[in-house]
Design goal:
mainly alpha; Arc Repressor Mutant, subunit A; 17 helices; 2 strands
Length: 375
């Protein structure tokens, strides 16, 4: 490889310790590195800075910036101080030790313990959005708002205590960042709550959740609610690793091909739009294979050709009517047959009544007949 010689004319420089490049840069997230370097730029220029300014310069969110600062604090490179409102009001650069310094692991561990022991806000320490409530009151209002929602509409979210744990969980912070990158935008509070519930409350591994998001985005699904349903299904099935999830993916493929075979399309693979529709049937509606195949069979009998839209209409109707088994389908069929017979009987009765009313009756003048008989 050709060596690249770096030259320039600008005498204004920002010096970064070589030990940082050698020891910390290779394993750190790129966004974290950019934020750390930008801090050095402001420090070397003797300028103050705010979290908002850093976020604007790097096109990040304030939470991303705070997460990076907390990461470097836990690694022992920064020491953060907070004002009474839990806002970051000071950053002190700690010495960057060389990689062969034996005290380094101990220093990192001590820094992490010291930082974790600091009092933190509900979501992130030291930074409140404009107009935000203090942490305890905010927690109460969130819980009250959730309690007012109907049970079927209530989103999964971590508890207040779990939120505090997640706020200092570096692995979860990385997960939130990675998921945001997959989705193309920073996660909103609802999305963070979904991930926090799956990761913190259900104990699902971060690599498993990352794999879930990756495969869903690759297949055209970017809804975190959709991903949540699959994750909950995995949790119920006892899937705890990427390897087990891949086995489940193979099962899904078999489901696709069973549907295609029922439609007489078994010689080709499913199109992306067809996958989306089948995923709705299996994951959103929660139907078992026998129910889906019955809908496919009825589609062929009705149209004499395959139609995912027609089968989807049948399954949507069954979902609304609470169908969960073949027995439920049989009960619906029986009720439909009874209604059909009743409707037929009503039409027959109406037809008989109409024939009586439509009969052309002969009109008689009874007074004229009496006069004629009496002469």
């Amino acid at each position: 490889m050709t060596n690249i010689i770096l030259t320039g004319t600008d005498s204004c420089v920002t010096a970064v310790p070589n030990a940082f490049i050698d020891r910390y840069l290779p394993e750190a997230d790129g966004e974290y590195v950019k934020i750390y370097l930008l801090l050095w730029r402001f420090y070397s220029g003797h300028k103050d800075v705010t979290v908002s300014q850093i976020a604007d310069i790097l096109d990040d969110t304030e939470k991303d910036v705070i997460r990076a600062l907390r990461y470097w604090a836990k690694r022992g490179l920064l020491k953060l101080s907070f004002n009474p409102d839990k806002e970051i009001n000071g950053i002190f650069f700690l010495p960057v030790e060389a990689e062969d310094d034996r005290r380094e692991p101990e220093r990192e561990t001590a820094a992490a313990q010291e930082f974790s022991a600091q009092e933190t806000a509900e979501e992130f320490p030291g930074q409140k959005a404009a107009g935000a409530f203090p942490a305890p009151e905010r927690e109460k209002r969130v819980e009250d708002a959730a309690a007012k929602k109907p049970a079927g509409e209530r989103a999964h979210a971590p508890s207040a205590a779990k939120r505090k744990e997640l706020a200092v969980d570096e692995e979860f912070g990385q997960l939130v960042y990675i998921v945001g990158k997959y989705l193309g935008e920073p996660l909103k509070s609802t999305g963070s709550d979904i991930l926090g519930y799956l990761y913190g409350e259900l104990g699902m591994r971060s690599d498993l959740l990352e794999y879930l998001v990756e495969t869903c985005v690759d297949s055209g699904h970017k809804s975190l609610h959709y991903m949540e349903k699959i994750a909950l299904d995995w949790h119920e099935r006892g899937i705890t690793s990427v390897e087990e999830a891949k086995e489940q993916e193979q099962l899904s493929r078999r489901q696709y091909y069973q549907v295609l075979k029922a439609f007489g399309l078994g010689r080709r693979g499913p199109a992306p739009e067809e996958k989306k529709q089948m995923d709705v049937w299996f994951y959103d509606y929660g139907f078992q294979m026998d129910i889906v195949l019955e809908a496919c069979s009825r589609t062929i009998r009705a149209l004499h050709e395959p139609s995912f839209e027609y089968a989807g209409g049948i399954l949507t109707d069954w979902k609304k009517k609470g169908v969960r088994s073949r027995e439920d389908v049989a009960r619906l069929d029986a009720a439909f047959a009874r209604e059909k017979e009743a409707a037929k009987a009503r039409r027959k009765e109406n037809s008989r009544t109409n024939r009586f009313h439509n009969f052309d009756q002969v009109g008689y003048d009874y007074d004229a007949i009496v006069k004629e008989l009496n002469g």
